[in-house]
Design goal:
mainly alpha
């Protein structure tokens, strides 16, 4: 009889321990489920932000390309067609004068590069 009581007590304790473990596992599963749902919502929010930022990036790229196109068209209008903005003055130089100036600059640069000169010679030209 005592053996039977001990055995019933052992079974009762075992069942209580299993019941406590089952309740603990259910509780942990519930907490994990809540965390998973929270992370899913956060992921959706971040994906929406990424999509919004990508759309903004595309919009800004289009604006930049339009500004580049406008600047290119403006440069073409100025250089090829001789157009100007209102209130702007255009200075024109004969091509020969530009070529002569470039030749003089190149000669000066070549003299400085290939001839060793003292600082006195460079400043005063002696």
């Amino acid at each position: 009889m005592i053996r039977l009581i001990k055995r019933l007590n052992l079974i009762s304790v075992t069942l209580i321990v299993l019941l406590v473990l089952l309740i603990a596992l259910a509780f942990l599963n519930w907490k994990i489920s809540l965390k998973r749902n929270s992370l899913k919502k956060e992921l959706q929010s971040l994906n929406q932000k990424v999509q919004s930022l990508e759309e903004r990036s595309d919009s800004l790229k289009k604006q930049m390309s339009q500004k580049d196109l406008l600047a290119y068209l403006e440069r073409l209008a100025r250089e090829d067609l001789g157009l100007r903005k209102e209130g702007e003055r255009v200075a024109a130089f004969p091509i020969e004068a530009i070529d002569a100036t470039n030749t003089n600059i190149n000669n000066i640069n070549n003299d400085k590069v290939f001839k060793k000169q003292s600082l006195w010679e460079i400043i005063f030209g002696h």
